[in-house]
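Is this the right way to post structure tokens for a design question? Let me know if I should format differently. Anyway, here goes:
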């Protein structure tokens, strides 16, 4: 009869050879004899994770590390099991424990780095880069590690380092198709389009059937005006399984004037598995509106059922938003608003359409309309940003507009904008789009560089898509930017009284923004109320008749500030249905002291536009407290922001 040790070795041999059924049977037989055998528990857990039973793996491997706490390999595989079921924080903790037990093993650093790389946010990015950099030190000859570190650096917008990292990966493995493709992506963001095209060609030479490479190659071809070639590569991407490329193919066809082909691609995107359904709906309703097919659009979207979703009405919010757009086109603002009242969505387009409907409905009540100018000189070089209407919400779009307008003014270009929330709320007067523009994908680095270091050859006649915003906010731009973003006087009856009532309650308005909602859903850094309570306790008695205003999407947190008699919008404002966030924003932008929420563009934008506050504070999640900060960057002696 074999000993437990012999049986375990045989099971491991089966496991390494991929005979998982035989290995699993032996591990179970071992555990029937020795139920506390950490090796058998651990390896059976590894098999369970491989079979898709993540929770079972957690139970088994958890038992193994409870018996043998310093079992580093099991700790690492416990992290893998947690990751497989989406328990990210526990996965990271398990990897860190494995590293603490055995800091010389590259695998745990690598797993931690890859895990954090996908989490977003500057803190996770920094930790991901640190873990992957350590992996590189331990395994300098591994091209995959160089590749993944470069991806992390790209996410952190350290593009030059990212390009260098991909080149190191390619020096180790010249036929590394993914590295060639990712190098192309980085070079695209750096504005080196010719080199990017060469990198994509190398990637496709190695792996022609790469849908992602065809898609990204198509994007750069599109940007350079090679629309037919771009459409061809989008088609290849679709053929190789990336059906989300159908919407890009449709965009290229539309710019070629081939509306029938564009519509066919969009209708296909609505029916194939994996299609980008929300974008296809947005683009198809825009096509219907452009062609004045409004009744057909309403009928189509009212009856649309997605064949690959359960329930098939899964895209009901997007369809109702599309129908509401047709009502807006006809000036039926109240009907659009009523329809959107049936929708509960975080989608950017829904937010834009609902806000515009609410603003226009407000104007209807005063017998007013917002009339936008057309481009008075359509032959003059111009730029636009159609994504202002489709990607991101209020603050996100304002930051993007900031960058695009800085760029337009730097080079004397006409800025054309779609209907977007900021264009309605602020006293802006940009002309409407006069003709299609070539798309500029991933433009943030390119446009920021051109603003900060003016060029003799700027990019013109392009649609700057999702530029995200400036990297820096130097003091020299402060007065100019603040002058752009003044609310239209017509909104005064809804935004002025709350501020007046606050000032009647005290002499110093202290406004705090505490964001929860989608931040919890998408795992952004959460601002703990205890940090702000502790800070308020240190300053409150020294303020001149302070009044505390709380702006939050989570009413439950207000009670945490009970000692300061907090005031919320409901206490001082008349209802402005669907636009309460603009009332909150106006208070934040005019407070005497402003505390922002971690990672929130909404309150950081309010801080940038606030001309009154003498103190701004922000959370320091690492330290667990709030600290003063300056929204605008001081200039150095050279006139540049540090």
């Amino acid at each position: 009869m074999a000993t437990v040790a012999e049986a375990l070795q045989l099971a491991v041999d089966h496991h390494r050879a991929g005979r998982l059924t035989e290995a699993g049977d032996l591990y179970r037989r071992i555990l029937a004899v020795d139920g506390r055998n950490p090796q058998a528990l651990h390896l059976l857990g590894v098999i369970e994770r491989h079979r898709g039973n993540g929770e079972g793996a957690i139970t088994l491997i958890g038992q193994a590390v409870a018996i043998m706490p310093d079992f580093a390999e099991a700790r690492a595989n416990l992290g893998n099991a947690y990751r497989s079921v989406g328990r990210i924080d526990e996965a990271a903790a398990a990897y860190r424990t494995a590293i603490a037990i055995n800091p010389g093993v590259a695998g745990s650093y690598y797993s931690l780095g890859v895990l954090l790389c996908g989490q977003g946010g500057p803190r996770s990015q920094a930790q991901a880069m640190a873990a992957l950099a350590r992996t590189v030190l331990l395994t300098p000859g591994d091209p995959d590690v160089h590749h993944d570190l470069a991806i992390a650096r790209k996410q952190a917008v350290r593009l030059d380092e990212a390009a260098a990292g991909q080149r190191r990966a390619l020096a180790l493995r010249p036929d590394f198709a993914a590295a060639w493709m990712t190098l192309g992506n980085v070079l695209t963001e750096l504005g080196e389009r010719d080199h990017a095209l060469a990198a994509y060609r190398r990637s496709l030479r190695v792996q022609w059937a790469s849908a992602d490479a065809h898609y990204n190659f198509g994007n750069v071809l599109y940007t350079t005006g090679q629309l037919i070639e771009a459409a061809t590569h989008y088609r290849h991407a679709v053929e190789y399984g990336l059906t989300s490329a159908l919407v890009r193919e449709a965009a290229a066809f539309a710019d070629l004037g081939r509306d029938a082909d564009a519509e066919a691609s969009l209708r296909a995107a609505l029916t194939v598995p994996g299609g980008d359904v929300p974008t296809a709906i947005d683009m198809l309703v825009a096509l219907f509106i452009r062609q004045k097919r409004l009744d057909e659009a309403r009928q189509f979207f009212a009856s649309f059922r997605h064949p690959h979703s359960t329930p098939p009405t899964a895209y009901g919010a997007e369809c109702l938003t599309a129908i509401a757009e047709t009502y807006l086109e006809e000036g039926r603002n109240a009907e659009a608003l009523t329809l959107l009242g049936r929708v509960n969505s975080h989608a950017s387009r829904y937010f834009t359409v609902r806000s515009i409907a609410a603003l226009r409905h407000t104007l209807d009540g005063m017998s007013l309309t917002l009339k936008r100018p057309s481009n008075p000189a359509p032959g003059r070089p111009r730029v636009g940003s159609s994504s202002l209407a489709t990607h991101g919400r209020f603050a996100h779009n304002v930051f993007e507009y900031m960058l695009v307008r800085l760029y337009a003014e730097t080079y004397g270009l006409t800025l054309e904008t779609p209907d977007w929330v900021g264009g309605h709320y602020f006293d802006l007067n940009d002309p409407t789009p006069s003709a299609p523009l070539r798309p500029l994908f991933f433009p943030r680095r390119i446009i920021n560089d051109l603003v900060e270091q003016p060029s003799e050859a700027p990019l013109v006649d392009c649609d700057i898509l999702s530029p995200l915003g400036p990297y820096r906010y130097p003091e020299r731009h402060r007065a100019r930017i603040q002058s752009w973003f003044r609310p239209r006087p017509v909104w005064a009856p809804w935004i002025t009284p709350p501020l007046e009532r606050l000032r009647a309650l005290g002499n110093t308005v202290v406004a705090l923004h505490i964001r929860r909602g989608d931040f919890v859903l998408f795992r952004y850094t959460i601002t703990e109320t205890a940090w702000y309570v502790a800070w308020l306790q240190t300053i409150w008695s020294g303020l001149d008749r302070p009044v505390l205003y709380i702006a939050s999407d989570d009413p439950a947190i207000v009670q945490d500030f009970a000692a300061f008699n907090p005031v919320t919008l409901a206490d001082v404002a008349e209802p402005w249905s669907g636009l309460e966030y603009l009332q909150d924003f106006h208070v934040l932008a005019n407070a005497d002291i402003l505390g922002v929420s971690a990672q929130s563009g909404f309150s950081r934008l309010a801080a940038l536009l606030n001309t009154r506050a003498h103190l701004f504070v922000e959370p320091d999640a690492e330290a667990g407290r709030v600290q003063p900060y300056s929204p605008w960057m001081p200039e150095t002696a050279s006139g540049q922001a540090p």
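Format looks fine. Someone answered above. Worth noting: The radius of gyration is 28 Å. Strands lie at 382-384, 414-416, 438-440, 462-464, 508-514, 546-552, 593-595, 615-620, 625-628.
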